[in-house]
Amino acid sequence: MSDLEPIAMDRTQLRHLEDAREMWERYEFFLTLQEKFRGAMGWKTVGPHEYLTTYFTNPTTGKKQMGSLGRRSPETEKKKTDFDLGRAEVDKAAAKMKLELEPLIRVGRALRIGRLEPIASDVLRELARHELFDEKLLVIGSAAMHLFEASAGALLPRSLFAEGDLDLLSSAESRQEAMEELLPVIQRADKSFVLHAASRSIRNDHGFRVHLHTRRSLLKSIDQLDGTSEEQLSVLHSLLDLEPVSAVAIARDGVLVGMTGMDPRAFALTKYALATLDPDRDGAATRMAKDQAYAVGRLVVRFGTRPFEEDHLAAFPAFAESIETGDPEVAGVIGAASATPAPLMKRA
Length: 348
What we know:
Blueprint: E1 7-8, H1 11-36, E2 40-46, E3 49-57, E4 64-71, H2 74-111, H3 118-129, E5 137-140, H4 144-152, E6 154-155, E7 165-170, H5 175-186, E8 194-196, E9 201-203, E10 209-214, H6 215-223, H7 230-239, E11 245-250, E12 256-261, H8 264-277, H9 283-303, H10 310-315, H11 317-325, H12 329-337
Parallel strand pairs: 7-10
Antiparallel strand pairs: 1-6, 2-3, 3-4, 5-7, 8-9, 9-10, 11-12
C-alpha cells in the first residue's frame, strides 16, 4: 500500500465528528448572534436631551468607540430594552455553550484527528461569525484537505499538510479588494495581522499568512500553464463551478471549525495540473503538489460521495491511471510514455 493512501477513521473518530457537526450547528448560530450583541447601550445626556448611545471596543486598536441611535423616545427605549434582554440571553448561552464544548474539545485532542493549526481555525471561525462563507469565500489550498478528511471520514498522511498559511478564494474583483475587505475580520482572530505588500498576503507577527485569491487570478494561473490542451483547459475551468463542500473539522487544539471549500475533485485535478504543467514550480513544490493531488484523488475514489466525471479523467489520463491503480508512481511512467503519441489538440 502506498504511504499516501488515505485511511478510514474508526467508529470513535466518526462518532466524534458527528457530535462535532451537531454541536457546530448551534455554535455557529451562537457566534453570529453574539456578534449582533457586541458592545453595550446606554443613555448619554447632551444639553437638555438624552440620547441612546452604543459602546464597543475596536478589536484591532483596543480603543472604545461610540455611536448615537437617536434621542430618547418610546422607540429608542424599546430598542435598549430589547438589546439588554438579548445580551443577557447571549451571556447565558455563552456560559452553557462553554460547558458543552469543553468535554468535546478534550475528546478531539485525545483522538488526534484534528491537525489544522489553531490560528487558522481562529481565522476561519471569525469568517464564519461574519457569515462570509459559501457565496463570498471558499477554503482552497492545503488547508482544504482538513475539510476533505472530515467530509469523507478518512485521514490523509500527515506529511502532506503544509503549515504557516491559509488560502482563501474570494468573490471580490481583485486580490487587493479582498484583502482590504477581510482584514478587519481576520484581525479579530489576531490583531497583529497586517497587509503584507511584498507577498501580497495578510500576515501576523508569527509569520502566519492568509493568501487571498479570486476567481480571476485562479483562472489566470490555469491559463498560463504550459502545454495544456483545449480539453484540459475546459475541464479545469469547469471544475471551479462545482458545488462547494462543507463539513465540521477539528483543529489541533480540539476546537471545532466549520469549513466550506472547493470540491475535492477540483482540488486534486488543479493541484495535479499545477504540479505537472507549471514551469515556475521548483522540485519540492512539484512533488508536494503531486502527492496532495494523488492522495485527495484516492480519497475521492475510496471514500467520496461525488465520483470523478468521465471527462475529468479523460483529460488527464496519467492522473486517472494513478488513482485507479493506487500507485502514484504510475503518473510519472504514463506521463513519460504518452509524450510521444499524438497529443491532444493544443491551444493556438
